């Protein structure tokens, strides 16, 4: 009996219909569905999307709790434990589909899982199935092209590094800042200084039933946003 294949399956940004035919087929064929879970056993965003396409009671639903810490020892221990849970299924010849919002190769948990699996169990076949990113979902929600002709686009994690935020804005025609909730006011300050405050829009939980769009990001100063929020700045 051979080793099962680990699939990273992108299930899109939120709308259950924004998932590829190939992803749907694999989710139905794979006996094991792995998904990010909370410590309390709560469902992840990706899990909620997948439930629309499979019969969960016919699958092994493998909830993986990923370590949320900067302690290197706890981080390594948590990740190793997560990889071994997948390996326990793979070594029995069962394919595992790890589902992730958006695309598995763009700021995804799957990237770290795949690297660790290659390191610990190099014989495991690993395949990624592309998905629609929240970046593209936001462009559709805003009815706003991301780029045309020779324009440049930056996809940037929003951090507290003010210089990095400024550099991204100065060197791109359009910038998509991901996960902006924690640094929203800082971003607005930088936009003000660069004269771009009126060029920014924010979308939360894009394409999902709970999607919210603010075409003028300045309305959000001082407010708390959902974790799954992004900002599009178009010059």
TrEMBL record:
Known pathway: Cofactor biosynthesis; adenosylcobalamin biosynthesis
Keywords of the record: Cobalamin biosynthesis, Methyltransferase, S-adenosyl-L-methionine, Transferase
InterPro entries noted in UniProt: 4pyrrol_Mease (IPR000878), 4pyrrol_Methylase_sf (IPR035996), 4pyrrole_Mease_sub1 (IPR014777), 4pyrrole_Mease_sub2 (IPR014776), CobI/CbiL (IPR012382), CobI/CbiL/CobIJ_dom (IPR006364)
Keyword Methyltransferase applies: yes
GO biological process: cobalamin biosynthetic process; methylation
Origin superkingdom: Bacteria
Domain spans labelled Tetrapyrrole methylase: 5-216
Molecular functions (GO terms): precorrin-2 C20-methyltransferase activity
Family the entry assigns: Belongs to the precorrin methyltransferase family.
PANTHER family registered for this protein in UniProt: COBALT-PRECORRIN-2 C(20)-METHYLTRANSFERASE (PTHR43467)
Name of the protein in question: Precorrin-2 C20-methyltransferase
Organism: Paenibacillus graminis
């Amino acid at each position: 009996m051979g080793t099962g294949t680990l699939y990273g399956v992108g299930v899109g940004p939120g709308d259950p219909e924004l998932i590829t035919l190939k992803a749907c087929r694999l989710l139905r064929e794979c006996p094991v569905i792995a998904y990010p879970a909370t410590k309390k056993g709560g469902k992840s965003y990706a899990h909620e999307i997948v439930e629309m396409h499979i019969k969960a009671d016919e699958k092994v639903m493998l909830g993986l709790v990923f370590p949320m810490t900067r302690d290197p020892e706890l981080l390594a221990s948590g990740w190793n434990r997560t990889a071994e849970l997948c390996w326990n299924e793979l070594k029995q010849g069962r394919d595992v589909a790890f589902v992730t919002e958006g695309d598995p190769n763009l700021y995804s948990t799957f990237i770290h899982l795949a690297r660790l699996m290659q390191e610990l169990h190099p014989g495991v076949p690993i395949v990624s199935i592309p998905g629609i990113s929240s970046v593209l979902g936001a462009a559709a929600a805003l009815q706003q092209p991301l780029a045309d002709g020779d324009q440049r686009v930056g996809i940037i994690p929003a951090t507290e590094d003010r210089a990095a935020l400024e550099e991204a804005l100065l060197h791109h025609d359009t910038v998509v800042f991901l996960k902006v909730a924690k640094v929203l006011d800082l971003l607005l300050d930088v936009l003000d200084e660069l004269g771009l405050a009126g060029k920014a829009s924010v979308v939360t939980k894009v394409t999902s039933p709970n999607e919210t769009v603010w075409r003028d990001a300045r309305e959000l100063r001082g407010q708390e946003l959902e974790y799954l929020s992004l900002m599009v700045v178009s010059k």
